[in-house]
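COURSE: Structural Biology Practicum
ASSIGNMENT: Worksheet 4, Part C
STUDENT ID: 0417
INSTRUCTIONS: Below are two proteins. For each, the amino acid sequence is given first, followed by its structure token string. Answer the questions at the end about the second protein only.

PROTEIN I
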Amino acid sequence: MIPARYGPVLFSLILSGVMSLLVSGISTFRALQPQQDFVSLSAGAWLTGWLFAFPAVMLAAPLARKAVALLTARG
């Protein structure tokens, strides 16, 4: 098992992987002709997207948590 102190990093890794997979898959699907090689092009786009998404999530998650705390009622 992974120690709990790595939870935020693991969360960011999983979230960025899933979101970049969805976004790059949809974008690639919309941009391609039906006969083109969707899987290999989508995988390349996903890996590039994940490279940028992971650090973005690491930076954005604490800001999002603070925004949610400010915008929600306590109690």
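PROTEIN II
(use this one for the questions)
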Amino acid sequence: MRGIKWPFLCLALAATLSMMGIGIAIGVRSPLWIAVTLFAFISVMGLGFMTKRKMREKGNL
């Protein structure tokens, strides 16, 4: 192992928190918060995949 990839750890934690937010919003039955947290989850996952692609192209991964 080369070490911890901090950007990926932060993105993974943000995605996990977004998934938890979706579950809480469903429990509260709030369509607005379901949409907000779902959008946040999709955005964080997309950012993670874009970051991974850029790092792979530069040879840092």
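ANSWER KEY EXCERPT:
Q1: Residues 17 and 41 are 8 Å apart (CA to CA).
Q2: The chain is about 85% helix and 0% strand.
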